[in-house]
User: Fold these one by one.
Assistant:
Number 1:
Amino acid sequence: MQNRRSRVSGGDLLWDSNLLLLLLLIGACDPSLIGAFKRVADYSAQDHDILAAYAREFENLVATPHILTEVSNLANSLPQYVKPDCFERFSRLIVQIDERHLPAGYLTWLAEFPLFGLTDAAPSSLASTVVVATADGRLCSHLRRRGLQAVGFNEIRAHNRQPAG
């Protein structure tokens, strides 16, 4: 079987909200929250390291205003002692991200809107020019059926946990 990961690296990468929150905020601010904070309770510190390594395989990080807003809203639930640091890091990250705006009115016309909602309809629309990395298996499968480049977090995790050889 062909290594799917080799097909989906390089160029532009768009993380979904949970992975962006895990990789770029919580893991950098307070790794002890990984596995403890509700939105990233299913992840480990090793998962953070795997995502960080995967991100380095790409030239640009892409996001939409919808994803950034969702990450901000999720981060607002972080414990008070870590919020200032996380939001400071987030503000520095935002200016480095290639933010691609798709009007909400346009996204509501896409077939993905009733299936996945506004935040995930935007990556669906951009998936012809970026690799979408997501923890949502349903979204990943949908994008692949459309012939678009998407990678599921479990694939990234499994590939990186395999022994070299």
Note: The CA atoms of residues 22 and 93 lie 14 Å apart.
Number 2:
Amino acid sequence: MSEITAIEPQKKRADRVSVFIDGEFVVGVGADVAAAAGLFVGMSVDSNDLNTLLRAELARKARERAIRLIQYRDRSVEEVRRRLAGEDFPPDVIDEVMEFLARTELVDDKKFSRDWVEARTAAKPMGKARLARELFARGIDREVVEEATGAIDDGTEYELAMALARKKSAAADLSDRANRDRLASFLARRGFDWDTIRRVLGDLDAD
């Protein structure tokens, strides 16, 4: 059995402490981790105690990393999970962090999806199909995606497509089949369905 012989604040990081065991520096951990573990000078520790401490410190680092990620911009649950996995945090630590983020409502796929649809349609008009693809790519469940994109009804999607088509075709002769095909393909790439596209092209002809 070993003994903690010193717990010293780190000079460059006031929120961290250095832990010395049997007179030797062993590990640096967050002051909150040390407090939660109840560390004190003279405390007897063994290898299991040290492993538990190291694991708690790793979880703290992963939690801080996750919070920095979502402070930079909103992210889906899966986006945060992928980033943590890409930085080699172990699966059990990632699970713990994701549970914390969900419990504190720092990540919420429903809210993320609603905000995504609103922001994307405002900045760059697109149809529900493309919005759904983008959300699927961010690991959002189908049910959540359908709920978020369902906020765009057929009338709204038509208006988005028409506004985009008018802007795109302002200087184009739509009596030219090649121009019509290019416009139709452009709208399809933006995620509008073919019924909406045909309706838009027909109304542009009428105009």
Note: Residues 17 and 34 are 8 Å apart (CA to CA).
